[in-house]
Amino acid sequence: MPLEPIDPESALDLYLTDREHETSQATIYSHRSRLGHFLRWCEQQGITNLNDITGRDLHYFRLWRRDEGDLKPVTEKTQMDTLRVFIRWLESIEGVEQDLHSKVLSPDLGDGDNVRTVMLDSDSAEAILNHLNKFEYASRPHVILTLLWHTMMRVGAAHALDLEDYDPENQSLSVVHRPETGTPIKNKEGGQRFIALSDDICTILDDWIETTWVNTVDQFGRQPLITTSKGRAHTTTLRGDCYRWTRPCEIGIECPHGRKPATCVATGYDEASKCPSSRSPHAIRRGGITYALNHGWPKPAVSDRANVSEGVLDRHYDQRTEQEKMEQRRKYLDNL
């Protein structure tokens, strides 16, 4: 069939709209971010019709992105793999030549190359949560960072919580997949679960609801648990809370990078992610998982609470050193 002209921006909008009902909002956000680099490259090259893209063009993009971003192999692979999925989708709507996706190359990774190790360490988490508890008590940042660290949930799950999902009597949260009303969660029905809460976490949630929470109803008649003055807090807002409050200077700690607040670009409200010490929601989740494992939680319990398989837990989340694992096994010596 003949190709039908389509510009890069329209193609990306159609692609993301098509995928909205089959994947999580977090995945949509990630794909938009990764493919945004491809759109920038197309603009620089004067490409206005993706019908004309060739395998050589895709190789030039890969080299351009590698040079521009000084990418690590794992980041390059993630971005190129996402581009391959996008190109395959374009083939399905006659936007590019058939089998063009097979010409999207990405690096082969060795053992360990695809394991991300960035996380919020327990000392930093303690300092941040103590500061929030004292100076920003029951604020939205206090609530979201506390939940991500202690419950190990994904930011998309926190975004999806409704007021009724919090049960103060049973001290629990219910994570529910509701794609038909705008809040899908990762792993869909497989990600649904109850999460037990401690007395301290319940007290923070109770005080949040009583003093700071905005009583609002969304277009689907739902009352979100994590709110702003405009309604349910968007995942972008929650990510911003995480990046801002994991900057050392935000809690009064001297900059470990030798920067001055007056001239540091990362002190801007929307620039916090540029701080080398700031951490994403996923890094907070990873730190919480590692902290639980270091404190003797069995892997099956962590796996169920965080909604991650034990295999993925071992490969992508467990950041304990081999010595830390050995010391944890030591307590079983008396049973031999």
Primary descriptors:
two-stranded antiparallel sheet, 5 strands, 336 residues, 2 domains, hpI Integrase, Chain A, DNA polymerase, domain 1, 13 helices, mainly alpha
Give a description of the structure.
By secondary structure, the chain is mainly α. The chain has two domains: 8-103, DNA polymerase, domain 1 (Orthogonal Bundle); 122-283, Intergrase catalytic core (hpI Integrase, Chain A). It contains 13 helices and five strands. It has helices at residues 8-19, 25-45, 55-69, 73-92, 122-135, 140-151, 155-160, 199-211, 235-245, 281-294, 299-306, 310-317, 322-330, and strands spanning 166-167, 172-175, 193-196, 227-228, 231-232.
In short:
The protein has 336 residues and is mostly helical. It is built from 13 helices and 5 strands. It has 2 domains: 96 residues, DNA polymerase, domain 1 (Orthogonal Bundle), CATH 1.10.150.130; 162 residues, Orthogonal Bundle (hpI Integrase, Chain A).
